[in-house]
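Hi V.,

Quick status before I head out on leave. The structure for the redesign project is tokenized and pasted below; the design run finished overnight.
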């Protein structure tokens, strides 16, 4: 598996490191910590697999509270 830099993004998601085809979405994503999310990409064209990690600044604060998120996205499920 290859680790890739963020600059290798395709207009639709990522670019395969082996064949250059555009990939739309990662096969899986993993929350590493508050500043990092890791994505596993799989190309169905050439069967290559690679991962990409997205890093966020440590001082990034949420503009919306957890309670506000729950109300906004889960209210229809609980009513």
């Amino acid at each position: 598996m290859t680790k890739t830099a963020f600059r290798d993004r395709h207009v639709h998601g990522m670019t395969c490191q082996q064949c250059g085809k555009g990939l739309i979405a990662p096969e899986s994503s993993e929350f590493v910590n508050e500043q990092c999310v890791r994505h596993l990409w799989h190309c169905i064209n050439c069967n290559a697999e690679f991962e990409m990690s997205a890093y966020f600044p440590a001082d990034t604060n949420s503009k919306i509270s957890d309670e506000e998120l729950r109300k906004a996205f889960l209210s229809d499920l609980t009513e």
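Above is the designed sequence. The chain is about 15% helix and 35% strand.

G. will cover questions while I'm gone.

Best,
W.
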